[in-house]
Automatic annotation (TrEMBL):
Its cofactor is Zn(2+). NCBIfam families: hisD. PANTHER family: HISTIDINE BIOSYNTHESIS TRIFUNCTIONAL PROTEIN, HISTIDINOL DEHYDROGENASE HDH. GO terms for molecular function: histidinol dehydrogenase activity. Belongs to the histidinol dehydrogenase family. The keyword Ion transport does not apply. It is an enzyme of class 1 (oxidoreductase). This is Histidinol dehydrogenase. The active site is at E327 (proton acceptor), H328 (proton acceptor). Substrate binds at S237, Q259, H262, H328, D361, E415, H420. It holds the Pfam family Histidinol_dh.
């Protein structure tokens, strides 16, 4: 991996480099995606079936687009029973963590005759997109469905690509069933997002779409936002390790590569105060790359977006980490909890040398659907709040309104909204 001294210039170059990975920079694909979305909106099932045959080489129609009970039962016979048990253990942790995020409605009444409050209502229908391209992600199935179930969403509809024979990956199906998906459809890509957003003869329109996907899926979610809500427009995966001379270079190298293997656009960055650690990590990375199965992907990822930055002080390192605002941040220092208190921007923070990032991907419980491309400066991980909506509650008695009606009328008239003022005035004529 390249080793660079952390300066204002090198940091700025890095930030500009990372921005190239944003889905917002892929305008060349937007026209093609918009055409697919518009076509599905107009022709519904017919368009979905045509695009599925064109892109996934599968003949799907109204009779077989939905995964059946028999297909689900067959999937259980094809998945290692030990893996099913692991999925169930992970579900316990994920569900337990998200249960702690639940909020309740609240109401505040006063003796003057006013009552104000907030009513929490789960969304009626949510669409979960699960990719099926370069890898299979049953962990993402769990992370997207569980908070929706905990929130009390009425119906969870999942879409995922099928193979040329019209079959969905059995591990994906098992994970969907264990997590609580109500319906699963064999549709992928931008056409799946459009089907969820606008509805077809087979797939109900949903209120919100969540889940990761390739650039076509990301841009399709961007295109339908406003017609439905979405979780985010996610970019490629990324990890930043913040370390000092006490870190184990072999552990750090392994953790960096855990994200570099996702795809060629993934980012892996180490910021350290130790040049000795930087050199050792670089050597360990070279050794690991030679024996890992996704060598080609890792190599391209590191060539484009892999960095080791050597900072003069830990405060300089922390400042850089806050500016990069990484999706995953590992802190491997002598006092990791103290460093954690100075981190403002990160999707998920992993503390100490035994809190490796994949722990969060699969098992610990916090959600692994995280803000990317620096958006952790203002976005949060997927959570229960993403699957509810809040309504304001206002009640005033006649006496309570009478005490303030002249103030309200004066405010409305100041904005030249006389009908607003009259709406209050008529009650006290």
């Amino acid at each position: 991996m390249r080793i660079v001294t952390l300066t204002q210039e090198s940091k700025q170059n890095l930030l500009e480099d990372l921005l190239k990975r944003s889905p917002n920079n892929y305008g060349a694909y937007e026209e093609k995606v918009a055409a697919i979305v518009d076509d599905v909106r107009k022709r519904k099932n017919e368009a979905v079936f045509e695009y599925t045959e064109k892109f996934d080489h599968a003949k799907i129609d109204a009779s077989n687009i939905k995964v059946t009970k028999e297909e689900l039962e067959e999937a259980y016979t094809q998945v290692d029973p030990e893996l099913i048990e692991v999925i169930r253990k992970a579900l316990v942790n994920i569900r337990s963590y998200h249960e702690k995020q639940k909020r309740t409605s609240w109401f505040d009444s006063k003796e003057d005759g006013t009552l104000l409050g907030q009513k929490i209502t789960p969304l009626a229908r949510v669409g979960v997109y699960v990719p099926g391209g370069k890898a299979v992600y049953p962990s993402s199935v769990l992370m997207n469905i569980v908070p929706a179930k905990v929130a009390g969403v009425g119906k969870i509809i999942m879409t995922t690509p099928c193979n040329a024979e019209g079959k969905v990956n059995p591990t994906t199906l098992v994970a969907a069933n264990e997590a609580g998906a109500d319906e699963v459809y064999k549709v992928g890509g931008a056409q799946a997002i459009a089907a969820l957003a606008f509805g077809t003869e087979s797939i109900e329109k949903v209120d919100k779409i969540v889940g990761p996907g390739n650039i076509y899926v990301a841009l399709a979610k961007k295109a339908v936002y406003g017609f439905v809500n979405i979780d985010s427009i996610a970019g490629p995966s990324e990890i930043l390790v913040l370390a000092d001379e006490t870190a184990n270079p072999r552990y750090v190298a392994a953790d960096l590569l855990s994200q570099a293997e996702h795809d060629e656009m993934a980012s892996a960055i180490l910021i350290t105060t130790s040049m000795e650690l930087a050199k050792k990590v670089s050597e360990e990375v070279d050794g690991f790359v030679e024996v890992l199965s996704r060598k080609d992907i890792i190599t391209k990822s590191l060539e484009q977006f892999g960095y080791i930055l050597v900072a003069e002080t830990m405060q300089d390192a922390i400042d850089a980490a806050n500016e990069i605002a990484s999706e995953h941040l590992e802190i491997v220092t002598a006092n990791p909890f103290e460093v954690m208190t100075r981190i403002r921007n990160a999707g998920a923070i992993f503390i100490g040398e035994y809190s490796s990032e994949p722990l969060g991907d699969y098992f610990a419980g916090p959600n692994h659907v995280l803000p990317t491309n620096g958006t952790s400066r203002f976005f949060s991980p997927l959570n229960v709040d993403d699957f509810v909506k809040k309504s304001s509650i206002v009640y005033y008695s006649r006496e309570a309104l009478e005490a303030v009606h002249e103030d309200i009328e004066k405010f409305a008239k100041a904005e030249q909204l006389t009908a607003h003022a009259n709406s209050i005035h008529v009650r006290f004529e």
